[in-house]
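Protein Record: Sequence and Backbone Structure Tokens
======================================================

Structure line: whole-number tokens from a learned vocabulary of local backbone shapes, matched to residues.

Purpose: to set a sequence beside its fold so the mapping can be learned.

___
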Amino acid sequence: MNFSRLRLGIGFAVVLGLATATAGLAQFGSNPEAPIPVATAAPNVTAPPTAAPTTPATAETSSPTPSGRPRRGHRAPSPASSGSPGPTPSDTPEPPQFTTLDGIWEIEMQPIGKRLATYSHLGITATGANVTGYWERDAKKKQLHVPLTGTFDGRLIALSATLPDGTTATFSGYVEGFSDMVGLFRTSDKDPGTAFTAEHRKKLRR
């Protein structure tokens, strides 16, 4: 191999490279307004939206079947939740209200030593503090309408009736709300008395 020619060729290549570089610099210096290449930005790539996770249906959110009946294992809605009114309890009739003693009173007495109570009736008419009327002792024996008189001060009442044998029977006690009477029945001053109660009634009950 001829080393002299090899060195000559390498030197020629170096000279040619330097000349080419010098020419390029000279061309850039002669045209200073030439645009300098600028690197372009990479395109903005956005990630595709992700769908929201769906919640599986629970027992509370499950819809009824097309027939209107709840699915197996689900309770049907109550009438209150569906908006339809439920049954209402029947009204209890109020007791009769009385503003006077006038009318029929049913008396119940329990004599001492007797198992059964006895019943009778008073027919009363009040005029102010004065009371008049009758005592129907026993309808079965036709001992009817024994006259009676008495007084009433708004609470305490005292009635007396003259019996066919000439004796006087008395009813003394108190009245509650013109509807109930409680007191003591006596046939003489020596009689210890028999407790009685009475109820004001609209009609005479047989």
About this structure: Helices lie at 3-30, 79-82. The CA atoms of residues 8 and 93 lie 138 Å apart. The first strand starts at residue 103 and ends at 109.
